[in-house]
Amino acid sequence: MNFRRGRGREEPEINLIPLIDILIVVLIFLFLTTTYNRFAELQINLPEASAEKSADKPQVLSVAVDAAGKYSINGAATPYGSAEGFAERMREAAKGTKDPVVAISADAHATHQSVINVMESARLAGYNHISFTTQSRR
């Protein structure tokens, strides 16, 4: 029994044109967004070093500034009269150390000018390494 007598079978048709268009757009996108690195082609063998920790710890000159604008150098209260005078006191506290690290510990409510005063004095004393101490939040 053939119930489909006069009807021909329709072959399914796959249209490839839209698929090719989408692939071309994807390729163009990849070409435009990809960065080419020439260094990936080079094989580099990095040098090795076996260095130990330095036995010389840098001399730290601790300068503290409280909220009221009072200064101390290495725990000793030091009045601030001028930048030159404070620089001289910093040199005396460093005891001839060539280039100490000046660690500024300023209160959170200290004025910006008081910290700038310490930085200016460190510059006049010839100390270029300045760091600021902080504490972590609780």
Question: Can you put this structure into words, describing what you see?
Answer:
The structure is a single chain. The protein has three helices and five strands; from the N terminus they run αβββαβαβ. It is α/β, with parallel strands linked by helices and 138 residues long. The protein has a domain at 60-132: Nucleotidyltransferase, domain 5 (2-Layer Sandwich). β4, α3 and β5 (130-132) form a beta-alpha-beta unit. α2 (83-94) crosses α3. It is elongated, with a radius of gyration of 36 Å.
What's a quick, concise take on this entry?
31% of the residues lie in helices and 15% in strands. The chain is of the alpha/beta class and 138 residues long.
CATH class of the domain at 60-132: Alpha Beta
Distance between the termini: 88 Å
| Low-pLDDT regions | none
Succession of helices and strands:
HEEEHEHE
* Strand runs, count: 5
Average pLDDT, rounded to a whole number, is 83
Largest sheet, in brief, is: 5 strands, mixed
Per DSSP, the total helix count is: 3
Task: Kindly report the CATH topology of the domain at 60-132.
Answer: Nucleotidyltransferase, domain 5
Strand order of the largest sheet: 3-2-1-4-5
| Class derived from helix and strand content | alpha/beta
Q: What general outline do the C-alpha atoms trace?
A: elongated
Q: Give the C-alpha Rg.
A: 36 Å
Write the layout of secondary structure elements.
Elements: H1 17-33, E1 60-65, E2 71-73, E3 76-78, H2 83-94, E4 101-106, H3 112-125, E5 130-132
Parallel strand pairs: 1-4, 4-5
Antiparallel strand pairs: 1-2, 2-3
Helix pairs in contact: 2-3
